[in-house]
Design brief:
The chain has 226 residues and is an alpha/beta fold. The chain has a single domain, classed as P-loop containing nucleotide triphosphate hydrolases (Rossmann fold). It is built from 10 helices and 8 strands. The strands form 2 sheets. It has a 5-stranded parallel sheet with strand order 2-6-1-7-8. Strand 4 and strand 5 form a beta hairpin. Helix 2 crosses helix 5. The longest helix has 17 residues. The mean pLDDT is 95. The structure holds 2'-deoxycytidine-5'-monophosphate. 2'-deoxycytidine-5'-monophosphate binds next to helix 2, helix 5 and helix 9.
């Protein structure tokens, strides 16, 4: 599979990775891997199958046999189906995030999802969004970006997104959740959330998304992709 260019976009939740990865993939006409969605579906599948997130052998079995299909809606949004049922909304809730972060700390779950992630690497290229894209899954990526922002700013952004979706949310609770999830994702033994040594780190706390995208495009140009 060599010869397929890969750009990795890692960072904590709410740093704008999803938006930047989507814009980048669209602009370049490349494939997009939302690796967080795979962990979210695994957590959701456990709820559906009646498996506790703490039952590591059973969760790993769910991950190994995950019947998940990604498809694009007419508005460009990525739809996610588990066993043929649309779970796109369910996996994007705060509980969905907690489940994903919990099951993602299980080594056998990460191993089960690795091959699926590699399968996204296809011509003309791949933009891979996650936590360990540049450090583990695609460590030979051509360009590695690490997007970050303060926890307060990320909580505020998440709050506005959820309110716009009509969900009932509480800002201090969101901030606590984000800090808890950061701690769990950064301190786990396997594939912790850290920038790759050769990653370009971009702090988007005080930068509007379009300016972050412009900064990213400069790096993409430097690599000769456009
Ligand atoms: O990017 P996201 O918020 O959808 O990710 C949800 C959770 O999944 C996140 O808290 C940690 C986990 N995750 C991971 O461990 N590795 C990835 N490559 C992507 C997500």
């Amino acid at each position: 599979m060599s010869g397929v260019p890969v750009i990795t976009v890692d960072g904590p939740s709410g740093a704008g990775k999803g938006a930047i990865s989507y814009m980048l993939a669209k602009h370049l006409g490349w494939h997009l891997l939302d690796s967080g969605a795979l962990y979210r579906v695994t957590g959701q599948a456990c709820l559906i199958e009646g498996v506790s997130w703490d039952d590591h052998p059973a969760v790993s079995e769910v991950a190994r046999h995950l019947d998940v299909v990604f498809s694009a809606a007419s508005n460009g949004e990525i739809l996610v189906a588990y066993k043929g049922v649309d779970v796109s909304g369910d996996i994007r809730t705060e509980e969905g995030g907690r489940g994903a972060s919990t099951v993602a700390a299980i080594p056998a779950v990460r191993a089960a999802l690795l091959q699926r992630q590699h399968e996204f690497k296809r011509l003309p290229g791949l933009v891979a969004d996650g936590r360990d894209m540049g450090t583990v899954v695609f460590c030979d990526a051509n360009l590695k970006l690490f997007l970050t922002a303060s926890a307060t700013e990320r909580a505020q952004r998440r709050y506005e997104q959820l309110i716009a979706k009509g969900q009932n949310v509480n800002l201090p609770r969101l901030l606590e959740d984000i800090k808890e999830r950061d701690a769990r994702d950064s301190s786990r033994e396997i594939s912790p959330l850290v920038p790759a040594e050769d990653a370009i780190v971009i702090d988007s706390s005080a930068t509007p998304i379009n300016d972050v995208f412009a900064q990213v495009m400069l790096e993409v140009k430097k690599k000769g992709f456009i």
